[in-house]
Amino acid sequence: MKLTDTHSHLYLDQFTDDLDEVLSRAEEAGIGHIFLPAIDWNSLSQMDHLSHSTISFYKMMGVHPCDVKSSRLSEEEKLAETCASPEYVGVGETGLDYYWSTDHIAEQKESLRMHCRVAKAVQKPVVLHNRDSTADLLDIVEEEQDGSLTGVWHCFTGTEDEGKRALDLGLYLGVGGVSTFKNAGVDATVQKMPLDSLILETDAPYLSPAPKRGKRNEPAFMAYTAKNLARLKEVSLDEIAAITTKNAFQLFRIDTE
Q: For the residues of 61-123, what is the DSSP string, one character each?
Protein backbone atom coordinates (compact mmCIF):
# COMPACT_ATOMS: atom_id res chain seq x y z
CA MET A 1 0.00 0.00 0.00
CA LYS A 2 1.41 3.36 -1.06
CA LEU A 3 -0.41 6.61 -0.32
CA THR A 4 0.03 9.72 -2.42
CA ASP A 5 0.14 13.20 -0.90
CA THR A 6 -0.79 15.45 -3.81
CA HIS A 7 -0.19 18.77 -2.02
CA SER A 8 2.66 19.38 0.40
CA HIS A 9 5.00 22.31 1.02
CA LEU A 10 7.87 20.33 2.54
CA TYR A 11 10.37 22.84 1.19
CA LEU A 12 9.21 25.57 3.59
CA ASP A 13 11.20 26.73 6.62
CA GLN A 14 8.89 24.87 9.01
CA PHE A 15 10.68 21.64 8.02
CA THR A 16 14.27 22.88 8.02
CA ASP A 17 15.24 21.45 11.40
CA ASP A 18 13.82 17.94 11.12
CA LEU A 19 13.19 17.14 7.45
CA ASP A 20 14.89 13.74 7.62
CA GLU A 21 12.69 12.71 10.54
CA VAL A 22 9.59 14.00 8.74
CA LEU A 23 10.42 11.91 5.68
CA SER A 24 11.14 8.84 7.80
CA ARG A 25 7.73 9.15 9.43
CA ALA A 26 6.15 9.58 6.01
CA GLU A 27 7.78 6.38 4.82
CA GLU A 28 6.61 4.52 7.92
CA ALA A 29 3.05 5.80 7.33
CA GLY A 30 3.05 4.38 3.80
CA ILE A 31 3.54 7.62 1.86
CA GLY A 32 5.15 6.72 -1.46
CA HIS A 33 4.61 9.88 -3.51
CA ILE A 34 4.59 13.58 -2.59
CA PHE A 35 3.58 16.41 -4.95
CA LEU A 36 5.06 19.85 -4.32
CA PRO A 37 3.08 22.87 -5.53
CA ALA A 38 5.00 26.15 -5.52
CA ILE A 39 3.85 29.35 -3.87
CA ASP A 40 6.29 31.68 -5.67
CA TRP A 41 9.42 31.58 -7.81
CA ASN A 42 11.63 31.06 -4.77
CA SER A 43 9.94 27.72 -4.17
CA LEU A 44 11.77 26.10 -7.08
CA SER A 45 15.24 26.33 -5.56
CA GLN A 46 13.84 25.36 -2.16
CA MET A 47 12.46 22.12 -3.63
CA ASP A 48 15.83 21.01 -4.98
CA HIS A 49 17.12 19.67 -1.67
CA LEU A 50 14.25 17.20 -1.28
CA SER A 51 15.16 13.58 -1.89
CA HIS A 52 14.45 10.20 -0.35
CA SER A 53 15.28 6.60 -1.20
CA THR A 54 11.68 5.35 -1.31
CA ILE A 55 9.53 8.48 -1.70
CA SER A 56 9.06 10.05 -5.12
CA PHE A 57 8.73 13.83 -5.41
CA TYR A 58 6.91 15.73 -8.16
CA LYS A 59 7.34 19.49 -8.60
CA MET A 60 5.03 22.22 -9.88
CA MET A 61 5.32 25.94 -10.49
CA GLY A 62 2.81 28.67 -9.77
CA VAL A 63 2.20 31.86 -7.81
CA HIS A 64 -0.12 31.59 -4.81
CA PRO A 65 -2.99 34.12 -4.83
CA CYS A 66 -1.81 35.59 -1.52
CA ASP A 67 1.45 36.45 -3.30
CA VAL A 68 -0.33 38.34 -6.07
CA LYS A 69 -0.15 42.05 -5.30
CA SER A 70 -0.09 43.45 -8.81
CA SER A 71 -0.69 42.39 -12.38
CA ARG A 72 2.02 39.98 -13.47
CA LEU A 73 1.12 39.27 -17.06
CA SER A 74 4.78 39.67 -17.93
CA GLU A 75 5.36 36.38 -16.08
CA GLU A 76 3.18 34.35 -18.43
CA GLU A 77 5.93 33.48 -20.91
CA LYS A 78 8.33 32.58 -18.11
CA LEU A 79 5.69 30.48 -16.36
CA ALA A 80 4.79 28.65 -19.57
CA GLU A 81 8.43 27.95 -20.36
CA THR A 82 9.05 26.60 -16.85
CA CYS A 83 5.92 24.47 -16.67
CA ALA A 84 6.56 23.01 -20.12
CA SER A 85 9.66 21.30 -18.74
CA PRO A 86 9.25 17.58 -17.91
CA GLU A 87 10.66 18.49 -14.50
CA TYR A 88 7.28 19.98 -13.56
CA VAL A 89 4.02 18.02 -13.53
CA GLY A 90 1.50 20.79 -12.86
CA VAL A 91 0.74 24.52 -12.77
CA GLY A 92 0.19 25.94 -9.32
CA GLU A 93 -0.71 26.60 -6.90
CA THR A 94 -2.92 29.41 -8.09
CA GLY A 95 -6.51 30.41 -7.33
CA LEU A 96 -8.34 33.00 -5.29
CA ASP A 97 -8.17 33.95 -1.62
CA TYR A 98 -10.56 36.57 -0.26
CA TYR A 99 -10.03 35.60 3.38
CA TRP A 100 -6.76 37.41 4.03
CA SER A 101 -7.35 40.41 1.81
CA THR A 102 -9.75 41.76 -0.77
CA ASP A 103 -7.37 44.50 -1.90
CA HIS A 104 -6.13 42.68 -5.00
CA ILE A 105 -9.09 40.67 -6.25
CA ALA A 106 -8.77 41.89 -9.84
CA GLU A 107 -5.08 40.95 -9.88
CA GLN A 108 -5.83 37.54 -8.36
CA LYS A 109 -8.44 36.85 -11.02
CA GLU A 110 -6.07 37.79 -13.83
CA SER A 111 -3.32 35.67 -12.31
CA LEU A 112 -5.71 32.72 -12.13
CA ARG A 113 -6.66 33.16 -15.77
CA MET A 114 -2.98 33.33 -16.69
CA HIS A 115 -2.29 30.06 -14.88
CA CYS A 116 -5.26 28.45 -16.64
CA ARG A 117 -3.95 29.59 -20.02
CA VAL A 118 -0.53 28.18 -19.23
CA ALA A 119 -2.02 24.90 -18.02
CA LYS A 120 -3.89 24.49 -21.29
CA ALA A 121 -0.85 25.44 -23.32
CA VAL A 122 1.47 22.93 -21.64
CA GLN A 123 -1.30 20.33 -21.17
CA LYS A 124 -0.77 19.94 -17.44
CA PRO A 125 -3.27 20.29 -14.58
CA VAL A 126 -3.81 23.48 -12.62
CA VAL A 127 -3.85 23.34 -8.80
CA LEU A 128 -6.53 25.63 -7.38
CA HIS A 129 -6.47 27.33 -3.99
CA ASN A 130 -9.86 28.61 -2.88
CA ARG A 131 -10.77 30.50 0.26
CA ASP A 132 -14.03 32.43 0.52
CA SER A 133 -14.07 32.70 -3.28
CA THR A 134 -15.87 29.61 -4.59
CA ALA A 135 -18.34 31.27 -6.97
CA ASP A 136 -15.69 33.44 -8.63
CA LEU A 137 -13.22 30.56 -8.84
CA LEU A 138 -15.64 28.18 -10.53
CA ASP A 139 -16.92 30.91 -12.83
CA ILE A 140 -13.40 31.60 -14.08
CA VAL A 141 -12.66 27.90 -14.53
CA GLU A 142 -15.88 27.57 -16.52
CA GLU A 143 -14.95 30.54 -18.69
CA GLU A 144 -11.45 29.15 -19.29
CA GLN A 145 -12.62 25.60 -19.90
CA ASP A 146 -12.30 24.72 -23.58
CA GLY A 147 -12.29 20.98 -23.09
CA SER A 148 -8.56 20.78 -22.38
CA LEU A 149 -8.29 22.29 -18.88
CA THR A 150 -7.77 19.82 -16.05
CA GLY A 151 -6.97 20.39 -12.41
CA VAL A 152 -7.82 19.94 -8.77
CA TRP A 153 -9.78 21.97 -6.26
CA HIS A 154 -7.16 21.76 -3.56
CA CYS A 155 -8.45 21.45 0.03
CA PHE A 156 -12.04 20.91 -1.06
CA THR A 157 -14.50 22.43 1.42
CA GLY A 158 -17.46 23.10 -0.85
CA THR A 159 -21.10 22.10 -0.76
CA GLU A 160 -22.48 19.11 -2.63
CA ASP A 161 -23.68 21.34 -5.49
CA GLU A 162 -20.31 23.12 -5.66
CA GLY A 163 -18.49 19.81 -5.68
CA LYS A 164 -20.66 18.46 -8.49
CA ARG A 165 -20.14 21.66 -10.48
CA ALA A 166 -16.38 21.32 -10.06
CA LEU A 167 -16.52 17.73 -11.29
CA ASP A 168 -18.62 18.79 -14.27
CA LEU A 169 -15.91 21.35 -15.07
CA GLY A 170 -13.30 18.60 -15.22
CA LEU A 171 -11.73 19.05 -11.79
CA TYR A 172 -10.70 16.53 -9.18
CA LEU A 173 -11.33 17.24 -5.50
CA GLY A 174 -8.44 17.31 -3.04
CA VAL A 175 -9.40 15.69 0.27
CA GLY A 176 -7.33 16.90 3.20
CA GLY A 177 -7.37 17.33 6.95
CA VAL A 178 -10.52 19.46 7.04
CA SER A 179 -12.51 16.37 6.03
CA THR A 180 -11.71 14.89 9.45
CA PHE A 181 -12.93 17.89 11.46
CA LYS A 182 -16.11 17.40 13.46
CA ASN A 183 -18.92 19.82 12.63
CA ALA A 184 -17.13 21.13 9.51
CA GLY A 185 -19.58 19.27 7.28
CA VAL A 186 -16.91 18.47 4.70
CA ASP A 187 -16.97 14.76 5.54
CA ALA A 188 -20.66 14.46 4.64
CA THR A 189 -20.07 16.20 1.32
CA VAL A 190 -16.99 14.13 0.47
CA GLN A 191 -18.99 11.00 1.21
CA LYS A 192 -21.34 11.91 -1.63
CA MET A 193 -18.59 12.57 -4.17
CA PRO A 194 -17.44 9.74 -6.48
CA LEU A 195 -14.26 8.07 -5.29
CA ASP A 196 -12.76 8.13 -8.77
CA SER A 197 -12.70 11.94 -8.59
CA LEU A 198 -10.93 12.25 -5.23
CA ILE A 199 -7.24 12.61 -4.41
CA LEU A 200 -5.59 12.86 -1.01
CA GLU A 201 -3.43 15.71 0.28
CA THR A 202 -2.03 17.30 3.42
CA ASP A 203 -1.23 20.94 2.59
CA ALA A 204 1.64 20.45 5.04
CA PRO A 205 2.59 22.30 7.18
CA TYR A 206 -1.02 23.53 7.37
CA LEU A 207 -4.43 22.01 8.19
CA SER A 208 -3.48 18.95 10.20
CA PRO A 209 -6.22 16.32 10.43
CA ALA A 210 -7.81 15.17 13.65
CA PRO A 211 -6.35 14.02 16.02
CA LYS A 212 -3.32 16.18 15.14
CA ARG A 213 -5.32 19.36 14.62
CA GLY A 214 -3.43 22.47 15.72
CA LYS A 215 -0.01 20.90 15.20
CA ARG A 216 2.32 21.33 12.26
CA ASN A 217 1.02 19.09 9.51
CA GLU A 218 3.28 16.60 7.72
CA PRO A 219 2.79 13.88 5.09
CA ALA A 220 2.65 11.07 7.66
CA PHE A 221 -0.53 12.58 9.07
CA MET A 222 -2.32 11.91 5.79
CA ALA A 223 -2.85 8.37 7.06
CA TYR A 224 -5.57 9.78 9.34
CA THR A 225 -7.30 11.42 6.39
CA ALA A 226 -7.04 8.23 4.34
CA LYS A 227 -8.49 6.12 7.15
CA ASN A 228 -11.35 8.58 7.56
CA LEU A 229 -12.08 8.48 3.83
CA ALA A 230 -12.07 4.67 3.95
CA ARG A 231 -14.64 4.88 6.72
CA LEU A 232 -16.80 7.34 4.80
CA LYS A 233 -16.68 5.24 1.64
CA GLU A 234 -16.95 1.91 3.47
CA VAL A 235 -13.95 0.41 1.70
CA SER A 236 -10.54 -0.80 2.86
CA LEU A 237 -7.57 1.49 3.40
CA ASP A 238 -5.71 -0.44 0.69
CA GLU A 239 -8.50 0.38 -1.75
CA ILE A 240 -8.38 4.06 -0.81
CA ALA A 241 -4.62 4.10 -1.33
CA ALA A 242 -4.87 2.36 -4.69
CA ILE A 243 -7.73 4.42 -6.10
CA THR A 244 -6.55 7.84 -4.91
CA THR A 245 -3.02 7.15 -6.16
CA LYS A 246 -4.41 6.02 -9.51
CA ASN A 247 -6.49 9.20 -9.66
CA ALA A 248 -3.47 11.37 -8.86
CA PHE A 249 -1.30 9.69 -11.47
CA GLN A 250 -4.07 10.03 -14.03
CA LEU A 251 -4.57 13.72 -13.28
CA PHE A 252 -0.86 14.57 -13.33
CA ARG A 253 -0.12 12.14 -16.18
CA ILE A 254 2.52 10.21 -14.28
CA ASP A 255 3.80 7.26 -16.27
CA THR A 256 3.81 4.21 -13.99
CA GLU A 257 5.62 1.93 -16.43
A: E---GGG--S--GGGHHHHHHHHHSTTEEEEEEEEEE-SS-STTHHHHHHHHHHHHHHHHHHT
